[in-house]
Predict the 3D structure of the following.
Amino acid sequence: MVNPLMRATWAAVIVPALLRATQPRSLVAAAEGAETTLVAAAEEAETTQAAVAENVNIAKRLLVEADDHWPFSAPAGGPELADVKLLEAGVARNSFACAPDNLTEAEILAELETAAERLAVDGDSMSARKLILSSINPEEGVLDVFRSGWAKKPDEERLTVSDARIAIRSLGPSTSEGDVVYAELEDRLPNTSFVDVASSSESPLTPMTVLYDCRREGKAVVELRLAVRSALHYQDICIRWLKDCARGFRHLEIKQDGDLVFSQGEVDTAWKKRMTTDGTHDLSTKLVLKTSGIERLLVPKASSDQRLLWVGVLGPFLSSSDQGFELTSQPSEISVYYTCEFAGHATVTLKLEKARLSEASQSDFIELPWIKHCGNVEYKYISAFFKVDGASGNAGLEAIRDGRALPGFALPCGTGDHDSEVDCDKSAAPFLLTVPETEKRTSIDLHIDKKGSAEPPVFQPEPDISYDSRVLRAEIVRGPKISNPEKNKPRNSLHTVTVKYTCFKDGDSTIMLTLHVLAHRTVHLAWTKKCKEPKVKRGKALTAPQAMLIVFFVCSAIGIVICLIFCCCSEDDGRGVLAKEYSGMGNYWGDEDVELAEQMPPREKPIRRAVSDDDEVVFH
C-alpha cells in the first residue's frame, strides 16, 4: 500500500513540475493553486500519522494484570499461569489476545474454535475476575526515575480509562437458555465516565472487577474493551479469555466445630442425620464457610417453622443485604442465633443463595435443615457499661440493664436479616455511642449483681461480633470468663469484653456484640464505629540509578573540599616559612639593633636566632 504522505508529496511536487513544462501559463497558475492545496493535505496527513503514533505510545503506558491471589489457568486445563500480566506495552499476551476487527461472522466462528485452544481459562470456581490497572513509562530513563521520586507528573501524563464494553461469545451449540454466561463490571464504566489509572509507583493501584452469572454448563469467550485516554489522545485496547461455567456449589465447603457439613455439592450424611434427629440445644449454631475461588452470595437467610422460635443470621455482611458478600478461600464464620418464646422444638432452615446480576439468570441455592430445642428465658441479673476514652458518650455508659439492651444500644429493626422482632429496637433511635477514628479498642464491663450470685451466668458459646467487612474488621481479643455451673464457688461479678478494630477505608460501620448466656436468651449490644483509611507507608529504598547519582554527587563534593583545603594550606605554609626565617634573627644578635642590607650574603644555613620584642629591625 502506498503511504498517504508519499502520495501527497508526489502530487504536490512532481505533477506541478510536469504541468509547468508542458502547459500554458494559465494552466500553470491553476496547477500552482492545486499544489498549495495538496501540500496542505500532505501536512495534515503527516499530523494524523504523528497523532496515531502518539496514541500507540498511550497504550504502551498501560499495564493490566490479574490479581495474584487468583491467577488464570493455562489453556486446555493446564496448571495456573505463572505470569499474571494480561496486557503490557500496548500488546496483549498471546493467551489474552483478541481477534482482528475486520473478520466476517463465519471467520469469527472459525477463529473462536482455534482461540479456545490458546486462551487462558477462568475456572468454574470464579464468580468474579479481579484485574489491576496501572500506568508505566516504557521510555523512562535515569533522570526520569530520579525525578519521579520527588516530583509529581503533570496532568497531561495521567492516564484514564472509560467506555468499558464486554462481549460474550459462547462455544458449542446454541440453546434456548442463551449465552453460557452473562458478565458486567462491578462498577459500570460508560463512555461518559472516566477512571484515573494510578501510576505503578503509587498505592493502591486501580482495581477493576468483572462479575459473572453462569446460566448453564459450558464455555464462553469473554472479551473486554477499554478506551485508554490522556489529556490529548486515546486508543482502544482489547483483551479476552475463556470462561468455564458450572452450576451448583461444587467448590463450597461448610464445617461446624471441625465436622464436615457440606462438600462437593452435597450435605454430609452423618451431620444431616445427627442434626435432624437429635437436634441442638445451643443458643447459636456456628458454621465456617470457604471456597477454592470466589463465590458471591446473598446474605444468608434462616427461618423457623414454629412461632415459638425466632432466628437470625450473624456474620461479616452487616448492612450488605442488597449487595451480598464475597466468599473466598479465607474462612468466613456465620452464626445462626435463636430466641425462644416458650418451650418446644422447631425446624430451622438455613438458605444460601448465589448473587445474580440479572433476573434472567436462574437462582442457585442450597438449604440446610436441623432441629432446635427451646426453653430459654432472659437472664435478669446482668448489666453492661462501656469504657471508651474519647467516645461521644460518658465513660461508664450503661448499655444493658436487667438482661436487655437499653434504647440506643439495641439493633434497630430491619437491619440485616433478623426475623426476631423481640430483639430489635422498634423506636429506631440513633445509637448513643459512636467510637471515633482514633480509638482502636472498645471495652465493655459486664456486671453480675448480688441476686445473680446464686445462679451465675455461663457465657457459652463464645460471643459473636458482627460488622460491615467492607469498612473494617472487628474481633474480640478478650471475652467473658466461662463459669463452671457444677462448682459452688464464689465467682467474679465482673467480666470484661474487649473489641479490637482494623479499619480499611473511610466510613461508618454498625458493630453488634452478641452475648450467649447458657440456657437463657441471647443479648445483643450495638454501637457505631467511625473509620478512616490508613495511610500507606512508602518505602524509602533507593533504586540503582538514584543511588549512583547520589554517590556521584557526594564524591564530587568531597573532591572539591579536598582541593580547597590543599590550596589554602599551600598558601599558609609559604607565609609561615618566611615568617620563621625572619623571626629567628632577633635573638641571634641579642637585644641590639639589627640592620639588614638589601642584598645579604648567601648563607649555607638559615639564621636561627630569634628576635626579641625590644630588638629593632631596619630594612634598606
